Amino acid sequence: MLTLADLDAIAPEITLAVTLGLVLVLDLLFRPAERRLTGWLALSGVTLAASQIVKNLAAAAPLPSAAAGFFSGMFVADSTASFFKLIFCLAAAGAVVIGYRSSEISRARHGEYHFLLLAATLGMCFMASAGDLVMVYLAVEMLSQASYILAGYIRNNPRSSEGALKYVIYGGVASGAMIFGISILYGFTGVTDLVLVGQGLAGTASSPAALMAFLFMLVGLGFKVAMVPFHMWAPDVYEGAPAPVTAFLSIGSKAAGFAVLLRVLFSVGAQAAPGGGGIEAAAIPWREMLAVLAVLTMTVGNLSAIGQRSLKRLLAFSSVGHAGYLLAACTTATASGVSSILFYFVVYFLMTLGAFHVVVLVSNATGRDSDADYAGLGWKQPFLAATMSIFLVSLVGLPPTAGFLGKWYLFTALVEMGSWKFLLLTLAALLNSVISLYYYVYIIKKMWIEEPAPEGRRVVVGFVPGILLAVLAFLTVYPFGYGGAVLAAASKAAGDRASFLR
Amino acid sequence: MGHPFCFWIAGTLAILTALGVILARSPLYSALSLAATLLSTAVLFISLQAHLAGAVQVMVYAGAILVLIVFTVMLLNLRGDSGEKPLRPAAAAAGMVVCAAFFLGLTAFFAVDAPTPPAVGPEFGTAGAIGRLLFAPGSRFVYAFELVSVLLLAALVGAIALGRPGPEQGKDAAS
Amino acid sequence: MLEGFGVILCFILFAFAFVGINLFLSRLLRPSRPSPEKAMPYECGEDPVGDAWIRFNPRFYMVALVFVVFEVELAVILPVTVCLKSWAAAGHGALAFWELMIFVGILALGLVYAWRKGDLDWVRPQPRFSAGTPAKPVQRENR
Predict the structure, then answer these.
(1) Among A72, A135, A145, whose Cβ lies nearest the Cβ of B158?
(2) Is A145 on the interface with B (CB under 8 A)?
(3) What is the DSSP secondary structure assignment for residue A105, as one 8-state letter?
(4) Nearest-CA distance from A208 to chain B in Å?
(5) This prediction's pTM
(6) A411: which of A136, B33, B72, B165 is 20 to 30 A away, CA to CA?
(7) Is the distance from CB of A381 to CB of A348 less than 8 angstroms?
């Protein structure tokens, strides 16, 4: 039954849902030219939700029934989920702010844009908190529906429609595979609660059929995080979608995918060792499978990024590569692994949002998206080029940027495992970082070394975007001011072992 | 358990018509085959005592979704002879081999000591049982049920936002 | 229960057999003289105008989309009819009723939205906010 503690735990979601309804109503009341104002409502709703999440996170003791999950285990509001939700809220707020001035979204359609953003954010929050196979599926679908439509939001642009169509088709297949896997898991165990499914499977450790069902489920989740071989949608969607949506999807959707992936892996795929010291007696050899997939993902992503002419495509493949590093960290299944993933997402949010923001500004000015527009940008507009360079250097992971710290913690968590398998995985990730250096530096070189094209137009950086870029760049280049605090919060969130192993 | 007679008839029909969906040259024939597939699957559901699932299959899938598919075919003016080249025999053979391997692999996986599903009561899967799961006060799925409405709302508004003729197209249609 | 469906199956089989047998019998009896006129689509004895494959008005599609969403809603709330009575007897009726009302209410918001935005109107109204343009008659044909 519903109790007051339940309501406290689910308050951020309720706030988002109510805001969603209000945005829809306001959109009906406003004239087309005013509909952009719904952005303020969306922004305040997201901020309120974020403050409720922070309150839940900061609560001295975990909420009374957090460990058991709310609504009889359907909804798990542990601090790991809360940390992820904070990232979703940040990504949503970023998409509202960047989208406010984007030329790709016509004014009359801003109300629906904000509605869909909120719906996607709500889906992400439910993904992070899903404690039941049914909830996993519903939440993933909710995010997917909203993102399909957001991806095809630019009217009369064949690229946008193509991206959205590919997204729907791949997404439909992935979601079909996932529900197939879920139904088989339910058939074998007779329960849908993630932890109970894990316990039910523990008795059937060697069954290939259970492995098969688990793999099918992994298809759906791997699609969300753009894991190879389910990454094919990423470049087309990222290229075709309006840039604020691309930034939102590349951060929020990926983080949500990882949030639910972690929970499914650690509860369905594994059993807690009695002492609470890591995971033993996995019902399914998912660590080995995931390690192979992680190496594939980072290699394919980074190699494909080389030679991309469109900045959005390049960033898409780079995000596939980053998914590979994060997947590698998932295989550790330790608290430090999870906390390094959480920390990485904060860093990833800063640098990806910054890089996409520059891309939005440049493509708003030129009306296209090509690396030729960046030639000589450093000479014409040093501020824009300097911030972009900072974001790109951080994406490579070079010191002293935030990206370096993020990768450092990821790789430390891997090396801490001690066995040669994990060292090999770390080596693969390091090699991939070297590959990624090539294509990021290629853009930096273009901006600073090449001559500007004579007919190139000036990119207008408004006051608010300028401030946003400056703040993001500062946080990216000087992570030492806040890095410690964020890492402490992340390890506290991940250390809440109730989170995954109830 | 369903009658084996029911199972064999409906199962065979489902597979044959599913083949029809992918083999038919005309999208309209594909759609009609799909209707037959969905109906045969509904028969399978009903023979397993899952009356609600069967009814939903007929109502939502064979009814509404199929109407949408037919509309799409008409909207895009898809003809059977879309000038698409027939599949090369080698490609067709390769596809068949892959499908056969996938099918055999799945069968083998489930044949080798698959966990035995827990036994279910006679009530299982009936409309009453599902109703109790979805709405009974205190049932854990109440919360998922309310989420479904938000999901449907998002899908509805999104579909309208995307499907609505734009200002340019609107002008086009009016002139 | 299953026997009831068996009757329906027999009925369906009989219907198919009836059509098949009759077509087969008439094929045996009738003369076969095909001509182009006979192959034409039948349109009240007139020569058909244009193609049967016209492009549909996308508005059909919008209505169908809204219809699908509400049919899914119907399918989801259908099972409550089976058990609402027993809950009402147990005193939980109001709770179940409000659960349903929240569900329907959220979806009704979508219907209101589609309605107010004019997506269900057959003849779309001229934009209200561009004053000064004379209203043009909108063609009613399916184009």
Answers:
(1) A145
(2) yes
(3) S
(4) 6
(5) 0.87
(6) A136
(7) no
